[in-house]
Design brief:
It contains 5 helices and 4 strands; from the N terminus they run ααβαβαββα. By secondary structure, it is of the alpha+beta class.
Length: 114
């Protein structure tokens, strides 16, 4: 998905991140995906790892990001396409709740207006 110059840019970003954050370095299996232009963003990640994914995406070095509703609704990341896999989400007490129209519109963002 990435061209060679982009792969080199991503490798540089990762090398700098890992050099500055040795104790929380990006694991090799994640680096492999990043070099393909694919990442994920979810609550189980360290905030600095999420920030790296956001920065790579905004620099157009991350072509695909698998994200939770939190990312899709809360951050200005100009995606051309948004795929919403389910019209429901797990609520606070574990029950399934339908997504509200406003949430769907926010998650669709710019992609929805094309």
């Amino acid at each position: 998905m990435l061209k060679l110059p982009q792969v080199k840019d991503v490798a540089s970003w990762i090398a700098q991140f890992n050099a500055e954050n040795e104790e929380i370095a990006i694991p090799d299996n994640v680096i492999e995906r990043f070099l393909l232009g694919v990442g994920s963003h979810h609550a189980g990640m360290l905030p600095v790892h999420k920030a790296l994914v956001e920065a790579l995406f905004q620099a157009q070095l991350m072509k695909v990001v698998f994200a939770t509703q939190t990312l899709a609704a809360g951050i200005n990341m100009p995606a051309r396409t948004t795929v919403i896999c389910s019209m429901a989400k797990r609520g606070d007490v574990g029950s399934m709740e339908l997504l509200e129209t406003a949430n769907l519109l926010q998650m669709g963002g710019r992609a929805e207006r094309r």
